[in-house]
Amino acid sequence: MSEHTITVAGVSVDTRHWIGGERVASAQTFPDVSPIDGCTIGDISRGAATEAAAAVAAAKAAFPAWAATSRAERARILHAIADGVDKRIEELAIVETTDNGALLRSHRRGVMPRVAHNFRFFADWLLKLEHEDFETRGHTNHVSWDPAGPCVLITPWNAPLMLATWKVAPALAAGDTVVLKPAEWSPLTASLLADIAAEAGLPAGVLNVVQGYGSEVGDALTSHPDVRRISFTGSVPTARRIAASASANLTPLSLELGGKSPLLVFADADLDLAVDLAVEQYDNAGQVCLAGTRLLVEEPIAEEFTRRFVEKAAALTQGDPRDEATDIGPNIHPRQLEKIDGFVRRALDAGARAVIGGHRNGGQYYAPTLLTDVAQDSEIVQEEVFGPVLTLQTFADEDEAIRLANDTRFGLAATLATGDPQRAERVSAQLVAGTVWVNCFFVRDLQAPFGGSRQSGVGREGGTWSFDFYCDLKNTVTAP
Ligand code: NAD
């Protein structure tokens, strides 16, 4: 075992970058700390401009051969990567839980199998990707999906491998080469993915993984002139910096950003379902971009809804994310906990009432919190907290519900609970959101477009939309 390998819950993880098919160490490192107990898991290579340049050079060198590889062969290798993920689900699950504190049971049963699915889905979608040829005054128009070039993919820590592979899989399928930079708070599973891809036969340089801080290696990657696409998932302030870096080269961007999504509960809703949906918003300790953190409840049922919500939320078990019985784990980092607590303190100072929670819960845990008596223009209603903190406001009628729901600079998602299908249709049509869920939450099919309106993002990914982004579409017009 190399001095650069650490053992995480029995799994060996290389702490170096993966560039051009080789492990590369940086002289400097950064500590990777587990949110479960605050202990350092290991020291990870801290890349900067040199490593960014090397990774982009490797991706550029590997691009012509990968772009020329047949669709069938690319799809075959993506399926082999999926098989490799399937074989290592247990290892990926425990490593990611140790790294970011999300529930082991969801990693095992939900997230990691879906990571494998992400590769299979985009491999299969590639094989059926086609535009019909059409004629213009006897000339044939043929549209082709040409690979675009090296892509930089930058991802956050809240669902590291899931979010990374939503990008890596379509980019590789499209014939692009990739430099993946995972978040510095959860760097480990990206390193394992590099191993899995190499074992599956992905040629050297097609997938590169660089580790480090966004302001260092991330900035060097996004301002690199040889990069042909940047896909970023993360916060709005970082997106602004990335857009500024990308502007020098006019590099096309896909941005999946934050949210402050509403969950509308109408008086005609199945109340048990509505309460379940609301409590579900605490999943992943509230660190979910799509979470419906603004509960908007119709006045006549607000009291009963709150009573049942409190009962259900009080039954949630908070604790070690490795325990099967745990519902809510820790928040990612002391800095994030501080941020969450700051939001709640300021809301309470401004007159909000904590129906439940409103305080830390020892270690890196924050008690599931519900705040009422909040003003529509207050910080707690307008800003993304990214912790287990919900607000509850009431509305008198449908118009007011829609007005409150849309009164935000975000537009990622919206959820509504109603027993009236016509109302569902009417309200959905008026909500500004990339995804609207009616009487359900978090159902995502990779065929569907996914992304945010307003400041929740730029562009859509999923199915053909992903290929639109990762390919240079070309129309060839041939005379009769
Ligand atoms: P973040 O913006 O702080 O960091 C995300 C990534 O960007 C990290 O890898 C970081 O190292 C990198 N980065 C930071 N500065 C950079 C720079 N100057 N140049 C290049 N890269 C840089 O976000 P976070 O705290 O890791 O994640 C939480 C945010 O992500 C929340 O706002 C959440 O809503 C959002 N998110 C959105 C989606 C979505 O699909 N819309 C999904 C998950 C999370």
UniProtKB/TrEMBL annotation:
Top-rank taxon: Bacteria
Location of the active site: 256
GO terms, molecular function: oxidoreductase activity, acting on the aldehyde or oxo group of donors, NAD or NADP as acceptor
CDD domains in the record: ALDH_F8_HMSADH (cd07093)
Record has Oxidoreductase as a keyword: yes
InterPro entries: Ald_DH/histidinol_DH, Ald_DH_C, Ald_DH_CS_CYS, Ald_DH_CS_GLU, Ald_DH_N, Aldehyde_DH_dom
The entry's keywords: Oxidoreductase
Chain segments annotated as transmembrane: none
All residue ranges annotated as the Aldehyde dehydrogenase domain in the record: 27-475
A family per Pfam: Aldedh
SUPFAM superfamilies: ALDH-like (SSF53720)
Protein family per UniProt: Belongs to the aldehyde dehydrogenase family.
Name assigned to this protein: Aldehyde dehydrogenase
Organism from which the protein derives: Streptomyces ferrugineus
